């Protein structure tokens, strides 16, 4: 076979073109029944005992196919142009030109190289899967161009199936219209019989194409069945893996829940440690403590709703080796003073120094709610411990029962807007243990002293004030 371009196909008579490969005839043979010619190589690709002509669909026995040497000789004088370059000349010289100039021809579709044009042509016409070809039903309306490797997919398209259905309907209609059964019995000429046979051959070709499509569908069905079986085998394994994952997730959730509980315990411990650290920052060792209470409104609401009825001051000591004490405040009152007064109590706490201390605790305790304005109208009240009460015996637990002044300050006064005892939502309470039995008349003076002064300076000023008052006192 010799490749030619579109220009040669238009200029050459169709007599010189192979009906199978659509190229210039190479080693032509003639079909006796119809007279049409094919290439010898195209004939060899057909393995049937009878050859069907592609032009007229008539069948010729393989024994009735003859080599046409005379026609081959006539073809050698045909004037053609090279399909691959600008060369022109007679067909007889074309093979020599191809061997000299185009011995390593490459397929433009798949880039495969060939040592001879004959192999190249055979590859493009029959083998190359990347080459675009016409659908077999092109003449019936399916005019798409498809790569050979996509042909089976094309057969399954809706458009091709519709065209195939229309072709079958047309052929059946033709056979019904011409009353094929009657014509077989009345055929008087070879020409009529030939036309009927040609129609049947067309129907045969279409049925073959449908058979190919059905085979493709069967292959797809077999593939899907195989995949379905594989999925059925895989599914139990996946379900088993899923079950293991669920168990793992449940174990992880249980572990995380345990971690969450541990985290809450750690948070509580941290809050407790933080509170102790804050208390240590405010601890004193001289029997006095200045308690700063912030967020008074919130704490008051908590007390009224009974979310937290009382709050504790940081601990403080009477000396570095003395009693450990603290104050307890009920912002909404306690006992009979509930909802009428703030209740303020003194608490004796257990400490490492208790074995060497004297009990019961018998020293006077003074409370002072500071007026935060220059008027300094502080609220001062004191009480002496009841030495028979368990509140002032040696502590057996972390803290003794609180004891003190239930009606320390009226709630209606502390709840007034702009009262002098709460400023910036903060108030200050001083707790003082009196170890020297200070005169009651000196308490206002002692509590008006600047808290910023060192303790020993304040004590010195109190002594001086007491001496001055004693000297000014008239003799009895």
From TrEMBL:
Transmembrane segments: none annotated. It comes from the Eukaryota. This is RING-type domain-containing protein. The keyword DNA-binding does not apply. Residues 286-433 form the MATH domain. The keyword Transmembrane does not apply. One of its GO terms (biological process) is apoptotic process. GO terms for molecular function: tumor necrosis factor receptor binding; zinc ion binding. SUPFAM superfamilies: RING/U-box, TRAF domain-like. One of its GO terms (cellular component) is cytoplasm. It holds the Pfam family TRAF-mep_MATH. It is found in: Cytoplasm. Keywords: Apoptosis, Coiled coil, Cytoplasm, Isopeptide bond, Metal-binding, Ubl conjugation, Zinc, Zinc-finger. It comes from Rotaria socialis.
């Amino acid at each position: 076979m010799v490749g030619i371009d579109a220009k040669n196909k238009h200029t050459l008579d169709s007599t010189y073109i192979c009906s199978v490969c659509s190229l210039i005839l190479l080693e032509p043979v003639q079909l006796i029944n119809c007279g049409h010619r094919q290439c010898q190589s195209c004939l060899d690709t057909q393995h049937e005992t009878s050859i069907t002509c592609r032009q007229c669909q008539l069948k010729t026995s393989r024994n009735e196919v003859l080599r046409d040497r005379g026609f081959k000789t006539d073809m050698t004088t045909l004037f053609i142009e090279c399909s691959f370059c600008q060369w022109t000349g007679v067909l007889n010289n074309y093979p020599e030109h191809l061997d000299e100039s185009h011995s390593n021809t490459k397929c433009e579709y798949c880039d495969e190289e060939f040592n001879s044009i004959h192999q190249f042509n055979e590859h493009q016409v029959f083998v190359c899967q990347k080459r675009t070809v016409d659908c077999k039903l092109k003449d019936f309306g399916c005019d798409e161009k498809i790569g050979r490797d996509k042909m089976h997919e094309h057969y399954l398209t809706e458009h091709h199936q519709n065209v195939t259905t229309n072709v079958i309907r047309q052929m059946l209609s033709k056979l019904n219209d011409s009353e094929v059964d009657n014509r077989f019995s009345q055929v008087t000429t070879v020409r009529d019989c030939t036309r009927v046979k040609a129609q049947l051959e067309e129907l045969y070709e279409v049925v073959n194409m449908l058979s190919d499509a059905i085979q493709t569908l069967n292959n797809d069905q077999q593939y899907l069945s195989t995949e379905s079986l594989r999925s059925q085998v895989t599914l139990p394994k996946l379900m088993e893996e899923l079950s293991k994952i669920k168990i793992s997730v449940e174990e992880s959730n249980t572990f995380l829940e345990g971690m969450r509980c541990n985290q809450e315990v750690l948070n509580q411990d941290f809050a407790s440690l933080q509170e102790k650290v804050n208390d240590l920052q405010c601890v004193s060792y001289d029997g006095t403590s200045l308690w700063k209470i912030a967020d008074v409104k919130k704490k008051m609401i908590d007390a009224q709703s009974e979310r937290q009825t009382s709050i504790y001051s940081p601990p403080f000591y009477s000396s570095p080796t003395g009693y450990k004490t603290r104050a307890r405040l009920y912002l909404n009152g306690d006992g009979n003073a509930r909802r009428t007064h703030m209740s303020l109590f003194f608490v004796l706490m257990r400490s490492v120094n208790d074995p060497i201390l004297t009990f019961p605790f018998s020293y006077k305790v003074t409370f002072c709610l500071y007026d935060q304005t220059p008027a300094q109208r502080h609220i001062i009240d004191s009480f002496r411990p009841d030495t028979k009460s368990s509140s002032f015996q040696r502590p057996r637990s972390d803290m003794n029962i609180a004891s003190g002044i239930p009606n320390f300050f009226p709630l209606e006064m502390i709840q007034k807007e702009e009262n002098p005892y709460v400023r910036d939502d903060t108030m200050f309470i001083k707790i003082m243990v009196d170890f020297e039995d200070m005169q009651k008349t000196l308490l206002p003076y002692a509590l008006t002293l600047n808290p910023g002064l060192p303790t020993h300076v304040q004590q010195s000023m109190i002594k001086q004030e007491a001496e001055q008052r004693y000297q000014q006192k008239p003799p009895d």
